[in-house]
């Protein structure tokens, strides 16, 4: 399985004025990779993920998953947003089962998958709870379990931990690394947090702004097995600093271009 973005561009029209959000994006994500996308606000990170999810269509270029053009949403891609978007009237286990109810999966297989992903995400104890009874971290665990239960080829994460406190965020980072290792699912994640991107990713793609385009694709040369202690190691700190410099450089270039126009 390979996810390919081929010369992808995206335009938006606001009050009759066309703005290019992404331009000339070429990206390849191989089976089992964990790729993080970072960039300053307005660099098109979420637009890119929306295109891969099939929620919108490219203005130019194409997106291909396993040789098949992406033309809309599909079960081969699971999407988790910053807000878990759970159904408030459904229990945890029924939220996790929701996507499976839309697929040709029999009741026994559905129950088996729900049980496995509840265990994988540490939710067995709250399986009968409603979303209003959960913490922010638990809600995101449910959203992740729901997406993974459909066993998509690619898991798309749109800043899923951005609203969490620091401790819960780090707990979720450890969890998603473990789930990724256990399932082998391909992951494409958007985040504004460079430290998070370096900890989670095998590659970090840096987007430039105005329009959004790939400025750098950095390999994360850290061991596949990581715990939070790696964040204090010199090689981690060096990678983080390098990518932060790249993001800062692209942001400065954007500000300079805007100032020149004004």
From TrEMBL:
CDD domains: ABC_NrtD_SsuB_transporters (cd03293). Residues 3-234 form the ABC transporter domain. One of its GO terms (molecular function) is ATP binding. The keyword Aminoacyl-tRNA synthetase does not apply. This is ABC transporter ATP-binding protein. Keywords: ATP-binding, Nucleotide-binding, Transport. Gene3D superfamilies: P-loop containing nucleotide triphosphate hydrolases. Pfam families: ABC_tran. It comes from Amycolatopsis mongoliensis.
